TrEMBL record, chains A, B:
SMART domains: AAA. GO terms for molecular function: GTP binding; GTPase activity; kinase activity. The keyword Membrane does not apply. The lineage of its organism: Bacteria, Bacillati, Actinomycetota, Actinomycetes, Pseudonocardiales. Keywords: Chaperone, GTP-binding, Hydrolase, Kinase, Nucleotide-binding, Transferase. InterPro entries: AAA+_ATPase (IPR003593), GTPase/Isobutyryl-CoA_mutase (IPR052040), GTPase_ArgK (IPR005129), P-loop_NTPase (IPR027417). This is Putative periplasmic protein kinase ArgK and related GTPases of G3E family. It comes from uncultured Actinomycetospora sp. Belongs to the SIMIBI class G3E GTPase family. ArgK/MeaB subfamily. Gene3D superfamilies: P-loop containing nucleotide triphosphate hydrolases. Pfam families: MeaB.
């Protein structure tokens, strides 16, 4: 393939700041691929970030996350705001079909220069998503997005990570998945800043709303100062119904955080999650290096062999790995 | 709640070896909860393990993983084999509903003393699944399971982990998700030891089989010795059709691995994945300790504040974390 020309990062960052979609896309690709130049990129972006609000959307498959995200984009654009969308896909070689379908629904925004849409996959790097998503957020921030919507696809640890990244987290529910509300119990109360009961034209919407409100009444905690009470908004995202209410709820949450001098929490949480993810990726790479050393009779391979032979338990083996990594 | 009586691990292990379901369940709960006594448990189980074959089942949502797993249990039981099932659920507060539905389908095996069925969740511990699943496998192995089926629920990094744990990996597909086959491209070829095209009575089954075979013909690699060619089995799991063929394919793969002196690969891969997961969990805990130190002005919190203020880039902050962890 010959030699690959060096990427001109400064040029890309300058173009991204002008809102050139291709530059934004290339920068996010660098992030996703774990480019060795990410340090440089972080430094180049830093002066141009700190403005975008991050809104996370999460919920079970089938509640309508993509449709709601798309409807939110429409509403925010009508309001003149520049919008980024990061659809966070857990890494999987098997997820292609469904995800492509989801992305197609975003098609209406594909030609709007005020919208950047990007699916993020970890491409098999464990922990990669946690490190890559904050960096992709910085790219969109530098590109002038007022709001970045981070949508999780599917269920999994990615939700937890997305919550750590968002200034405001929307938990989506749908009627008829009411068992889920019960099963999820306290979990969703803790992460939600706003609830959206989507498909609210279906039977059972009232029951879902009531159930949520009941759960919240049981879980009120006023310890440590006043707390935000998550509003419950009814939406029919496919028809655009209730989306303005959802935008209002998002803005209300932001205003409340500002009034309580808590706007800094989201950025600090993001920075913390990112530092931790980068540090862990570094430590993981050091562990992997152990397996590379000495060829096939590598340190990690040898330890595994001793565990299989019953000479060593996996905890003792892990202790040796940690000692090696700690130098 | 008063003091919790100490668990008698030796007694539990002895009972589990007798096949007492409650003992098996309690041991797996200890594993899942990250009990501080896992080291002890690993040592107590070690002499009684090394016999079970691990079969991983993976594929997109909707292809019929639970139904196929259940049908496989029936077939293996008819064959007189003791069977364990671990349904690996990515941790999520939102996944309750669908998962409960899946588990209900396993109900027919609930009263069979030769079957142990367990859902595994990470309960929010990142990396927890990777560490906990091998340990749960050891419990089922010690409990006398001849075969343990590890089924992933949903998509995500869990697939990658399951592949690392299995002796034989079954990738399930279904007709009409053919776009998925294209999208997934090489990914599924690399992880599959056996393909099952489920719902094979539906339109498009032939096309899916052909597409798979075509992809395999393009991807044949004979580098480094002969390679196993994954068979493609047609099943209608809900009717039990083709399940005997699937069992035969699993046994063929095992026989081929034995003939090529490669039976040790699965156990070594499992041990390696487990050692790495435990080591990473240890290192992660050390990072978290940094955030606990010095109260709210903690080391990690302070670094995050400096990143937000633009005084430090996240990579430099992570370097400081890694240095601290490495002591």
């Amino acid at each position: 393939m010959g030699s690959v020309p060096a990427v001109d990062l400064d040029r890309l960052v300058a173009d991204a700041r002008e809102g050139v979609p291709r530059a934004v896309g290339r920068l996010i690709s660098l992030v996703e691929d774990g480019s060795p130049r990410l340090r440089e990129l972080a430094a180049a972006l830093a002066p141009h970030t700190g403005r975008a609000r991050v809104v996370g959307l999460t919920g079970s498959p089938g509640v309508g996350k993509s449709t709601t995200t798309s409807a939110l984009v429409t509403a925010l654009r009508a309001d003149g705001r520049r919008v980024g969308v990061l659809a966070v896909d857990p890494s999987s070689p098997f997820s292609g079909g469904a995800l492509l379908g989801d992305r197609v629904r975003m098609g209406e925004h594909a030609t709007d220069p005020g919208v950047f849409i990007r699916s993020m996959a970890t491409r098999g790097h464990l922990g990669g998503l946690a490190a890559a998503t904050p960096q992709a957020l910085r790219v969109l921030d530098a590109a002038g997005c007022d709001v970045v919507l981070v949508e999780t696809v599917g269920v999994g640890q990615s939700e937890v990570e997305v919550v750590a990244l968002a200034d405001t987290t929307v938990v989506l529910l749908a009627p008829g998945m009411g068992d889920g509300v019960q099963a999820a119990k306290a979990g969703i109360l803790e992460v939600a800043d706003v609830f959206a009961v989507n498909k609210a034209d279906r039977d059972g919407a009232d029951a879902t709303v009531r159930e949520l409100q009941h759960m919240m009444s049981l879980n009120r905690r006023e310890v440590g100062g006043p707390s935000w009470r998550p509003p419950v908004v009814r939406t029919v995202a496919s028809a655009g119904t209730g989306i303005d209410d959802l935008v209002t709820a998002l803005d209300d949450h932001r205003a409340w955080m500002a009034d309580h001098d808590r706007l800094g929490e989201g950025p600090r949480r993001r920075a913390r999650a990112e530092i931790e993810a980068i540090a862990l990726a570094d430590l993981r790479a050091r562990i992997r290096e152990l397996s590379g050393r000495l060829g096939s009779g590598s340190a990690l391979g040898e330890l595994a062999g001793r565990v299989v032979a019953g000479e060593l338990d996996p905890y003792a083996a892990a202790d040796e790995v940690v000692s090696s990594v700690r130098g």
